[in-house]
Amino acid sequence: MKVNKQAIAVSFLLSALSFQAFAQNTAAEPLDSLLMYLEDRFDVVFTFADANVGGVYVAVPTYDLALEALLAEIEKQTNLHFQFVNTRYIAVQKKVSRTTVSGTIIDRSTGEKLEAAAIYSGDNHTISDKNGFFFLEVKAGKEAVLVIRHLGYHTLSLEQEDWGRDSTVYGLVPAVQKLEEVRLDYISRGIRKLPDGAVRLNVQNLEVLPGLAQPDVLQVIQILPGIQSINETVSEINTRGGSNDQNLVLWDGVKMYQTGHFFGLISAFNSHLIHQAKVIKNGTSAAYDEGISGTIDMQQQDYLVNEMEFSTGMDMLAADFIAKVPVTQKFSFILGARHSISNLLKTPTYKSYYKRAFAHTGVMLTQPGADTTVDTYHDFSFYDVSARLMYDISGKDKVRLSILNNRNTIAFEERATIRDTLYTRESRLRQWNLLSNLGYTRTWSEDHTTQLSAFVSNYQLEGSNVSISGDQFHVQENEVLDWGMKLESKNRIWRRAELLSGYQFREVGIRNLDNLLKPNYSREVKDVLRIHSLYTEAEFTELLKNLYVRTGMRFNYYSKFNHFSIEPRVAIKYRLSNHFSLEVLAEKKSQHTTQLIDYQTDFLGIENRRWVLSNNESVPLLFSRQLSAGIQYNRNNLLVSVEGYLKHVTGIITPSQGFQNQLQYVYSIGDYYARGVEFLVNKRFSHANTWVTYTLARNNYFFPEFTPSIFPNNLDIRHALSMGGSFTFDNFELSAGFNYRTGKPYTRPAQDQLNERNEITYEAPNSARLGDYIRLDISGNYTLKVKQVNGQLGISIWNVLNRDNPYKIFYRVNEENEIAQITRYTLGFTPNVVLRFRF
Length: 839
Prior knowledge:
Blueprint: H1 5-23, E1 29-30, H2 31-42, E2 45-47, H3 50-53, E3 57-58, H4 67-77, E4 80-84, E5 89-94, E6 98-107, E7 118-121, E8 124-127, E9 133-139, E10 145-149, E11 156-159, E12 168-172, E13 191-193, E14 199-202, H5 217-220, E15 227-228, E16 238-239, E17 247-251, E18 254-255, E19 260-261, E20 266-267, E21 274-280, E22 294-300, E23 309-314, E24 318-326, E25 331-340, H6 348-358, E26 372-392, E27 397-418, E28 421-445, E29 448-467, E30 472-494, E31 497-517, E32 521-543, E33 547-558, E34 563-575, E35 580-591, E36 593-597, E37 609-613, E38 622-635, E39 638-653, E40 669-684, E41 688-702, E42 710-712, E43 719-729, E44 732-741, E45 745-746, E46 768-769, E47 773-786, E48 789-798, E49 806-813, E50 819-825, E51 830-838
Parallel strand pairs: 2-5, 6-12, 17-22
Antiparallel strand pairs: 1-3, 4-5, 6-9, 7-8, 7-10, 10-11, 13-14, 14-21, 15-16, 17-18, 19-20, 21-22, 23-24, 23-51, 24-25, 25-26, 26-27, 27-28, 28-29, 29-30, 30-31, 31-32, 32-33, 33-34, 34-35, 35-38, 36-37, 38-39, 39-40, 40-41, 41-42, 41-43, 43-44, 44-47, 45-46, 47-48, 48-51, 49-50
C-alpha cells in the first residue's frame, strides 16, 4: 500500500491548529457540543437528559486541562454535577440543593414529646430523641416531601413549603385505638383482635403456622374459631355455618368472584403482596355491603416505597416475583407476578392437589364400555399478575391504582377407538377474574378526610365439554361485571369520636349461557341490578374511659325492585378491668348475589358453581340477622375468650345449597338458623406459643314446604377442636397443629335397590353423618441473611398421618342400574417446600 507522506503531514498540521484554536477560545460554547468533543478526546461517554443540557452555554478559559479539571470548571458555571458511574461512563445530573430541617415531635392531644418517631425524605432519614427532637439534612425541591411516622399515630406528610426551618413543633394525631393497648397477639404473632370485634392480620409479620410453608391469607384465617372449610379449600370457606358465597372477599376494596387457584386449593392472589387483612364475623361497619356471613377485607401497602426492593420465591406449586420501586419522592409502584410450575415439573404436592381437585370428575373418569383414555396432564396451569401504583400529589392529596388479573386453565384430551378409528377431542375450562380500583384521598385537615374511588370486577368462566362416546358438545359460560363508585367522608367530631358517612353506587350484571348439541338446547340469561347505598356511623373510643362504641346504619335501594332495606350495625366493647372485657356485636345485612350448584353437568364436574343475581322472586334477596356476645380475659400473655352467637339467614334457595339427595332437583325457598359458642385459650411464652380453640354449634335448615321442614344444614358441624403450638429459636421456627371435628351430614338410601321408577329412595334429609375428621400438620421455617440478601426456607407437611378424611358421600345409579356410593376425600399426605429471597 502506497502512503502519501505529504497528506499525512498536512492532516496532522490542520488538526494541531484546530486543537490550538479550540484550546484558546474563551467564548461561550454550547455544552452539548463541548461534551461531544470531550468524549472524543478522553474516550468517555456522557449520559444525560436533553432537557438538562440543551440550551446551556459554558466558557472554559483553556482546554489544556485534565478531564476532572474541565468538568469542575463546567460545574462552576452551571447547575450541573458530573457523576462517574465507572472509569468510562459519566452521568450528567442537575445539582440537588440541600437544606436542613429540625423540630420536635409531640402528641397533638396531650403535648407529650414523642421519642423514636421516624422522619424521612427521599433516601434521608432519622429518628427523634427522648425529647422528641430531630435534625435532618434533606434534598430540597418542588417534589420533596417530609414524612413523620410513629406507632399509634396518623402519618404526617408535609410539602417543602410546610417545613419549619428552626425547631418547629410537629404535632401527631393519635390513631385513637387506646383500647388495643391491653390486648396481645390473638392465637399467633401478627394476628390481633380489634375493639370492634374484627380480627386483623399483619400478613408480613405472621409466624409459621401448622401445615403452611408460607402464609396464605385464606388458609391462615381458618385458624380462627368459627371459620373453617369443610372440604379444605379456600374457595369454600364457611363462616359460622354459612356457605362461601355468603362471604364478602375484598381485594383493595374490590369484590373477588374467584378466590382460588387449582380450583379452590390455594388463594388466587399472592399473599406476600397483602399488607393487612381484616376478618369480620359480626358487627360489620356500615361501609361494607353484602357478605351476610362474613367479610374478608385485604389491603395492599398504602404508603410510598422508600427503597427499591425485589423478592422472589418458589414452592412446589408456583414461582413468583415482586418488585417495589420508588420512582420519585412522590410516586412509587409495586408489581407482582406468580405462575404455576406444573407445565415444567410435576411435584408430589401438585399430584396430591390434582388428585384432590379432579377426583370423580370428567378429567379423571374414563367412559365405561369403550376404549377411551384421558390425557390428564395436557394443560393445567394458573397465574396471577398485580400492580399497585401510588402517587402523593401533595402532602394532602394522594392517588392509588390497584389492578389484579388471575386465571385458571385446564385442558384435556379424550381419545376413543370406534369401529377401528381413533377419535380425539379436547375439553377445556378457563376461569379468570380482573379487578381494578382507582382511589383519590384528600386530607382537608387532621380531622377531616374525603375519599373517592371507582372500581370494577369482571369474572368469566368458560367451559367446553366434549363426549366422544355420546357424540355431544356442551358449552357453558358464566360472566359477572360488577362496577361502581364510592364517596366517603371521615370527620373527627372531638378527640375520641369520629363520624363516617358515604354513598356507594353499584351495577352488577350476570350472564349465564348453556349450549348443547345432541340434543340441541340453548339458553342464555342476562340480569342487571343497580344498587344505591347511603351509610353513616359514629365511632366513640374510651367513652367513660372504658367503653368503645361504634354504631351505624346502611340504607340500600334496589331500583329494579323498588325495594328499600335498612341495616343497623353495632359494636360495643366494655373494659371491666385491666384484664376483663365484655363485647356485644349485632348486625343486619343483605346480599344480592348467590351461587347455584349443579353436580350433574356444570363445567366438567370441576367447577360446578354459577353466580346468579337476585330477581326478588325465584332468587330472592338474602338477609341475615346476627347477635353475639363474649367475654375476654387477658393477663400475663394468657388470653381466654368465650363468645356465643345467634344467626338467622332468610332467602336461601335449594339450588344454592348443593343437595345430592331427594332435594337435588326440588326448588324451594327457606331459611337457616345457626347458633354456637366459640372458646379460645392462647398462652404465649418467651420462645413458644400455644393455643386451643373449640366451637360447639348447631345449624338447621327450615324449608316449610318439606317434610320434615327442619333438618340439619349441609354445613352443620357440631364439634370442632383445634390445638397448636409454635417454637422459635434463633433463626428457626417450628409449628405443629391438630384438628378434629365431627362429620358433616349426608343422606343414605333407605333401601339397597332402586324403586319402581328406577330412582333412589332416600332416608330423611341429612339424617346420617360422615366419620370424624382428624388431621395433624407440621411446619418449619429457617431465615438467613447474607449481606443485602434475606433468605427463607420453609417446609410443611399437611396431613402427616395420611388419614383418609371423607368430606362428601353421595349416591348415583351406575351402568348396571345399581346404587353406587361415591366418596370424596380431602388431601392426603402433602409435603411442600418453599425457598424465598428478598434483596
